[in-house]
Structures are given as C-alpha cells and as structure tokens.
Amino acid sequence: MICYGAISILRNAEYWGEYMNIEIHTDFNNADVDEMKEVYVSVGWKKHTNEIIQQVFEASNVIAILKIDGRIVGFGRGMTDGIFNAAIYDVVVHKDFQGQGIAKKIMEFLLEKLSNVSCVHLISTTGNERFYSKLGFKQLKTGMARYLNQSLSDEYLE
C-alpha cells in the first residue's frame, strides 16, 4: 500500500510490486535532512547543505517525501498562495531508484494537493522536459526568470 498520511491506496504492481512499505510523508522532519542530502548528492546536486535543505523545506507549504521500507528515495516540494499560483521545486529521486515511477507518484501527489490552484509553475532540469509534458505541463510563451548563479543562467535562460 501507499500511505499519504492517513490515506491509503493500493499500489500499482507494475512499479511497486517488489517493495513492502511505501509511504508519502507530507511533513518535513529535521531528522530526515541527512538522508535527503544523500538523495540530492546521488543526482549531482552537491550544493544543498543541511541548512539549505532545512530552510527550503520549512518554507514550503506542500511537501511529498516518498519512503520505501523507511528509506527516503525521493521528494518534491511546492509553494502556493492557495488560489492563483503555485510552483513546484526539487522533484528529486535517488539515482538508484530512478525509472520506477517514483517521480511520477511524487508529482501526481503534489498536483493533487495543488488541484484548486489556477496555475502551477515549474522549471524542469535539462533533459526532463518530456517527463513534465506527460503530466500536462507546457512551455510558457511569456515566462521569464533571473538567476544570480551564472551557470544556472547559462543552462536555463535564452
């Protein structure tokens, strides 16, 4: 079963058949920071210190931390005004667990929590655009951004 707090649903055996206990936690716990950092590092995001992880998750009002057999293997977070706009950030799955539908489950959970919000934004990491388009996301015609970090600016901006 997959547990969302007190809500449980049957898991999709195609993705989850080999795992015993799958949970999505909606609350951030400082005790999880080291394990979350391992997930970031596994995909090459090495600048996320424990302090940064704590700060960004405490500032987020929509959180999905997916655990398999008690181990954090992926997560995502969002911020919203609850009516007009929301943004999804840091959908990350440990490299050893990628390709098993975990990011899709995290995104579906976040989108369900944001289902009453008029517009949900996200910035895809390079190479993952198709994944997000399958979830209904489309390119913006008028979107703009500003990055203080030059390498991020080079990667994401025209």
List keywords for this structure.
single chain, 158 residues, alpha/beta, Aminopeptidase, 31% helix, globular, disordered N terminus
Describe the protein's architecture and organization.
By secondary structure, this protein is an alpha/beta fold. The chain has one domain (2-122): 3-Layer(aba) Sandwich (Aminopeptidase). The chain is 31% helix and 25% strand. The protein contains 6 helices and 7 strands; from the N terminus they run E-E-H-E-H-H-E-E-E-H-E-H-H. It has helices spanning 13-16, 33-42, 50-59, 102-113, 129-134, 150-156, and strands at 2-4, 7-9, 22-25, 62-68, 71-80, 85-93, 119-122. A 7-stranded mixed β-sheet has the order 2-1-3-4-5-6-7. The longest helix is centred in the last third of the chain and has 12 residues, at 102-113. The protein is globular, with a radius of gyration of 16 Å. Mean pLDDT is 89; it is low at 1-14.
Strand-helix topology:
Layout (H helix, E strand, L loop, with lengths): L1 E3 L2 E3 L3 H4 L5 E4 L7 H10 L7 H10 L2 E7 L2 E10 L4 E9 L8 H12 L5 E4 L6 H6 L15 H7 L2
Parallel strand pairs: 1-3, 6-7
Antiparallel strand pairs: 1-2, 3-4, 4-5, 5-6
Weakly predicted, low-confidence segments: 1-14
**What is the CA-based Rg, rounded?**
16 Å
**What is the element string, with H for helices and E for strands?**
EEHEHHEEEHEHH
What's the architecture in CATH terms? 3-Layer(aba) Sandwich
Shape: globular
Assign the CATH class.
Answer: Alpha Beta
Strand content: 25-35%
Q: Could you give me the name of the CATH homologous superfamily?
A: Gcn5-related N-acetyltransferase (GNAT)
Overall strand count: 7
**Overall tally of structural domains:** 1
Average pLDDT level: 89
How far the N terminus sits from the C terminus, by CA atoms, comes to: 44 Å
Major β-sheet profile: 7 strands, mixed
Q: Per CATH, what is the topology?
A: Aminopeptidase
Q: Looking across the biggest beta sheet, what order are the strands in?
A: 2-1-3-4-5-6-7
